[in-house]
Q: What sequence folds into this?
């Protein structure tokens, strides 16, 4: 707090270097050296002000590790139970994909593969690479940094897409007469992976990409 505003013309500096806050409540840009009643809070909406999300890196790491741990039960335990004429049949994500391929339903098999294996894999490795690049201060071009920034924003906003795709598929797949489909324990872990990667993206302060 109380940082002097110091803008060097022609030099590439961040708003933080220049002493400006971005309010996360109302997106107001506030100079840290102007005096108002409560200096720690936004004068427009009252949200607490900080230059970077507090403990962003460690929180994102913790959430990412949790998501990686949950990937295992999500794939090992059955994700759904199909009751066909009273005979229950459990299927995991992988066995479900194999089933659709064997039945010749390639499009459904591919959609489930993309939504439940490929997308979570890219989200987890993507966030992991960004965190590693910051931790080890990798030399990355500005264009790549902008790409990383957009990736994080996308994961934060559209992360529920895979759960949505799977639920829509479940509603569309016709299992025939006297058949019911119910989610099994693996579905809880899979939802955990999706929700936790989403929170990891939200907890991460993407401006840290440019700080190094
Ligand atoms: Zn505000």
A:
């Amino acid at each position: 707090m109380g940082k002097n505003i110091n803008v060097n013309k022609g030099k590439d500096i961040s708003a933080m270097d220049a002493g400006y806050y971005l309010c996360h409540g109302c997106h107001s840009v506030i100079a840290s050296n102007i005096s108002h009643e409560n200096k720690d809070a936004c004068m427009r909406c009252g949200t607490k002000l900080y230059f970077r999300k507090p403990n962003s890196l460690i929180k994102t790491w913790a959430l990412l590790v949790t998501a990686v741990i949950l990937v295992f039960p999500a794939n090992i335990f059955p994700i759904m139970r199909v009751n066909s004429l009273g005979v229950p049949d459990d299927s995991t994500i992988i066995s479900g994909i194999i089933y659709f391929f064997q039945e010749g339903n390639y499009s459904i098999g591919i959609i489930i593969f993309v939504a439940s294996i490929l997308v979570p894999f890219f989200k987890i490795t993507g966030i992991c690479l960004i965190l590693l690049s910051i931790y080890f201060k990798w030399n990355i071009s500005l264009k790549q940094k902008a790409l990383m920034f957009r990736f994080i924003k996308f994961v934060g906003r559209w992360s529920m897409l895979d759960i949505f795709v799977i639920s829509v598929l479940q509603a569309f797949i016709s299992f025939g007469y006297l058949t019911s489909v119910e989610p099994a324990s693996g579905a809880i872990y899979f939802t955990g992976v999706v929700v936790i990667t989403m929170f990891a993206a939200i907890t991460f302060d993407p401006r840290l990409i440019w700080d190094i």
